[in-house]
Amino acid sequence: MLAAAGGAYAFAAPKVQAVMSAISGAKETDDYTGDGTSKVTITIKEGDIGEDVAATLQRSGVVKTSSAFYELLLASPEVQFQPGSYALKKKMSSKAALSALQDKANRVEDPSLVIPEGTALQDIEAGMVSKAGLSKAEVAAAAEDVSAYGLPAGVTTLEGWLFPATYPIKPDWTAKQYFQAMVDTMKQRLEKAGVAEADQERVVVFASLVQKEAGLAADYPKVARVFQNRLDDGMRLQSDATVAYGTGNTHTVTTTDAERADASNEYNTYQHDGLPPAPISNPGDIAIDAVVHQATGNWLYFVTVDLETGETVFSDTYDQHLVAVERFRSWLRAHPEYQ
User: Fold this and answer.
1) Three-state SS for 161?
2) Phi and psi based region of residue 238 (left: phi greater than 0; alpha: psi -120 to 50; beta: remaining)
């Protein structure tokens, strides 16, 4: 159980702000009105005091200013907070936010951080801020400290090493503890898939590519085989997903002619040989297993010909591939809503 108020010095900031507003004649209020708009989940961590709660609410967009909420809190010495996550709304008045935090119905039981397969690092970081109540600065600093997680020498990013799963929100955890749990889970999954420690980095990079490019689960081993055949034949992978990642776009695999021609993009596998220099997503079990147990075939090309069913055509030759591409174009013409 957490006490709401700190020492007497805590009154200074709100009072100074009020005096300065009066002197300047500023009319803009430092508080929202009403019960809020869109939903948001905030987390109160063990050891948080009133100032910490106020800062979390402002950072999450619940209250307009931490000072307005904290000033209300100081006038309510009987208020106490329980560590945990709470379902609130953005743009709530300080009074409404305080009332909501005292309502047990808003307490989120067993909150979780859900990471779908193929999620990129930047989206995981955003989830840790919005779901786990961590600051953006703390999460970014923990992500940059790559050497802290026991990864293979030479790994320069956590991208690819954060296993997609559901992780419980633990109010007393730091960003590093969340990342370490994800990394440890990835290592366990790689070991279970039979990946030797010396091969882990390559498999993670390869699987991250398959994760973004494959559609139906049954096609994952085939997609892995296509890329393996290309590598074996000295062909470039020509993956739009790698190009898109290099441009900073982690939510699509479509690219423009100019982007595919940009050799300055080190992830551009139209312009550079071999696998991308690092993972482009965080792969799950299906993608990892597909890399370890690739299908048997001579395919060098694939294209999804039906975006609704996910049907994908695999081809041995470029001429066969062109036929499949035309089939996809025909499908697009029949379904203009996808263009």
Assistant:
1) coil
2) left
